[in-house]
Design a protein that fits this description.
mainly alpha, 87% helix, 0% strand, globular
Amino acid sequence: MADTAARAEGDVTHARVLNIAVPIVLANVTVPILGAVDTGVVGQLGEAAPIGAVGIGSVILTALYWVFGFLRMGTTGLTSQAQGARRSGEVAALLTRALMIAGVGGILIIALQGVLFYGAFQVAPASAEVEAMARSYMQIRIWSAPAMIAIFGLTGWLIALERTRAVLILQLWMNGVNIVLDLWFVLGLGWGVEGVAIATFIAEWSGLAFGLWLCRAALRLPAARDWPRVFDRGAVKNMAMVNSHILQRSLMLEGIVVSFMFYGARFGDVTLAANQVLLQFLHITAYALDGFAFAAEALVGQAFGAAQLGRLRRSASMASQWGLGITLCMALAFWFGGGAIIDLMAKAPDVQTEARSYLVWMALAPVLGLTAWMLDGVFIGATRTRDMRNMMVISLIVYLVALALLMPAFGNHGLWMALLISYVSRGLTLWWRYPALEASVGR
């Protein structure tokens, strides 16, 4: 805790930004590896149904847990501000609050699993065989919901204290345990889909145990168990407000992504498949920029908590400079190497041809989305989450208007234009609100 306090008071340098960002980027690289191993292991069973069951089960559970993604962002913003203000007791209390919210949220998901699974399969129906296997998979994994949601809170807390190497180690631990147990349970013991679920269940609970160990110094502080402080009415109300704003904003953002896929389906299977391939370019961009957006969250939050406007500006500027460099590199890579990436992800010639016709939008996406991604980090650090929600409302309306005007005229090109316009709208509206963020420093 003393080391993190010293870092909070230090100068904002390029090295400091990279120390925060690079481990997050590396941690993000490991995310698709686990999905590939899960798919590859069940693929050795020689049947299509297990692959589909693990795929759809994972998507449903990820969507359920994602609802609590606000805990990661909200915890980062509030903790970094408390750290910047040198309120070590509040830093410890925030960790306890985050873990308690995770426990309640996880128990709620377990209690409502029947209703949630029914609703999910109504939205995404599958064959009777796949649905039965998927239910078996989810009925095992659902019992690690408290652990998985708690890891959101732990990750946000560690990022706020610039301990992103710990986040990387935690991610590597969970994925390593999961992969080893996948191979043992499925290929060694022949447990099939249930083996994949049990492996993930154990990995997630072991991840929580390891995460708590990483945070052991804070948990040993009396403030972490100072219940009047933990349940302080003002602090709890502020945390609830911040998290509710982030949740509302995230639901609207997810609505844009889901509607994009639904509208893309109107143009046929080939275009739908091409859009799915091209969305991976956006995921790659997000994975690369996350590290620098997280750096902005931590450093801006600490500067905001310390009421140091100059440091806040420097934090936002330095993180954004690195973000700009990364996006320009990615834009060039997508423009010149996008065709090869498409050919790697899709083997059907008609899908390859269709995807290539929209490659220009992939080259533009990192540049047009940079302002939105980086300002998200700045506003989360300053916990100006009401502005984030309100600007998301405006951006959603702009997106829907753009859809209505552009899709009839330009087809799938119009759909991509509308999506990128929503990015630009988010960036511009947040930039419009940025002076108010600066004006609130020290208030």
